[in-house]
Q: What sequence folds into this?
């Protein structure tokens, strides 16, 4: 049976694919109509995981556009940006690490917005939880027992740990409990230790506790014991393009704010 001659469409398609391959080998930039656009990558604080994932799904449903996320402690993400890791947007869990990114000329200060906040809470495994009141006279050692540990983020770098140390210091408790404090690489890592019953208590954000299955909030830290928990967002330097700007605007728009509110963030 004679073979079929390739159609003009198949010939043209083959030539186009060959051109793309040759251009890639030679390092030639292809026009936007030929090259595939990579999704916008967002570096975001671990405590934003659930909310940002929902917002990403909502954005895709509305626009058909995928967004990629990398979640970790804000400190780790800022250092990754400094090392040259590619991202379009940085969403930090505190002002310190956004200030750091700005000081290293990694982000665009003019784009900075702070659309949401959070609260700092004390949690326990649900089956051992008992409500307490945190103030300057609270007996932390009595609360923890003979060998109980309290887990939070690393107190010298991870935002939740920095907030925790600041609050405990303001309450006059840091020197008493610092030997009992265990630092984790992120707020979600700290949360997991309490969920598994590997720590007597933890200091996390209220929104993290709300999505955990086996923990209970037993107290909220006084607002005046630490700086406000705020989440600044900025576009990464060199990435202020239409695709990045479109998702950045969506992150601070009404649809995203409704998602934040549903997870218990303070919407500004």
A:
């Amino acid at each position: 049976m004679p073979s079929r001659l390739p159609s003009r469409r198949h010939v043209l398609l083959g030539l186009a694919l060959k051109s793309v391959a040759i251009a890639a080998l030679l390092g030639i930039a292809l026009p936007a109509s030929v090259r595939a656009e990579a999704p916008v990558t967002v570096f975001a604080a671990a405590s934003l995981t659930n909310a940002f994932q929902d917002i990403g799904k909502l954005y895709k449903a509305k626009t058909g556009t995928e967004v990629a996320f990398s979640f970790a402690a804000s400190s780790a993400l800022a250092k990754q940006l400094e090392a040259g890791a590619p991202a379009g947007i940085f969403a930090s869990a505190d002002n310190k690490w956004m200030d750091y990114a700005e000081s290293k000329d990694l982000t665009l200060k003019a784009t900075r917005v702070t659309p949401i906040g959070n609260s700092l809470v004390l949690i326990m495994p649900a089956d051992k939880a008992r409500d307490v009141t945190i103030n300057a006279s609270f007996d932390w050692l009595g609360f923890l027992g003979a060998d109980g540990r309290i887990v939070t983020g690393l107190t010298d770098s991870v935002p939740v740990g920095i907030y925790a140390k600041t609050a405990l210091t303001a309450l006059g408790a840091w020197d008493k409990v610092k030997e009992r404090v265990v630092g984790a690489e992120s707020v979600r890592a700290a949360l997991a230790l309490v969920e598994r019953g590997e720590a007597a208590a933890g200091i996390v954000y209220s929104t993290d506790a709300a999505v955990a299955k086996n923990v209970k909030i037993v107290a909220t830290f006084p607002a005046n014991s630490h700086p406000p928990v705020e989440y600044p967002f900025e576009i990464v330097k060199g990435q202020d393009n239409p695709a990045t700007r479109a998702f950045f605007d969506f992150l601070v728009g009404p649809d995203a704010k409704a998602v934040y509110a549903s997870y218990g963030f303070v919407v500004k």
Notes: The chain has two domains: 40-117+230-267, 120-220.
